[in-house]
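Example 3.2
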Amino acid sequence: MKRPDQHPIERILEDRIAIIDGAMGTTIRTYGMAEADIRGERFKDSSKGLLNNGDLFSLTQPQMIGDIHRRFLEAGADIIETNTFGATSIVQSEFFVDDPREHGGRKDADFYQKIIDDQFLGDLAWEINETSAQQCREWADRVANATSRPRFVAGALGPLTVSLSNSPDADDPGFRVVTFDQVKIAYIQQVRALIAGGVDFLLVETIFDSLNAKAALVAIREVFDQDGKNIPVMISAAVGRGGETMISGQTVEAFWNAVSHVKPLSVGLNCSLGPDLMYPFLEDLSAKADVAISCYPNAGLPNPLAATGFDFGPPDMARYLREFAEAGLINIAGGCCGNTPEHIAAIAKALEGLPPRKIQPVGETQLAR
């Protein structure tokens, strides 16, 4: 039943399966970018390699990033993600700060406090997030106006390069390199910048570590409360072959129980496994959750000999996602690593006309309202 206070995406999810975009990193690689391209004039003197810092392309190669967004939208994506998977000061420090371990030191809470306090890293993280959101917003609106079909921007919050759940030191299991509050502060900055850039909702995705995700969700809640900003929240976990979050080791059901209080717009699975291995875990989550279910798997397993670096082509992804839809498991579908605009176009075509999973009624006290 439609309500007058529903977000437009909620109305769409009741009527059909929404399509989310594919892999930004995979698609960037098809443009043949080199180290000089990501550096540009601005970062030409950086002492560390930057080519794996894909978020930086939003600043140095905005035309390419815009072209990728356009291609995913024209392939049929209803939702495009910001190019901000690693756009926190914590992750950006990997590319701009010397690793103390190379000089006999170690990364610990004191080290990461300096990262959190670093003005350059904070300003850079804000700029990447706000700029990327603006780029997405521009293309989503442009294509929406041209097609008379609404398109949405999801602000992507990735899993970080540090863990709150596990120690990196086998001899000191109680050691953590970073504190919960430090992670939360980094996410708070990212959330504010994404909202400033004009995202429609926030997507906490590729969750390997549930405690990291908790920090992101607490950050979102604090920003909403302090700034009076309330937008929908999506949550998506990455699981291993046993259906467990890879670092914190939670089963799909335990993961849902840990985040259900947020009352997200959607919960789902992405990355990690290909669709051929994801079915039982997606089925379990679909049976437990009372919100929309999203699914955007990798294009199979990594394969360096494949054109995209992954085994499955567009027809394979289309076939598996159609099976999920025919089983009544999904409301949002797309692809993660290895999925190009061609993969998304095939998925969108395969799901056209298929009914979405029926979403059970949820309470009115959603985090996103």
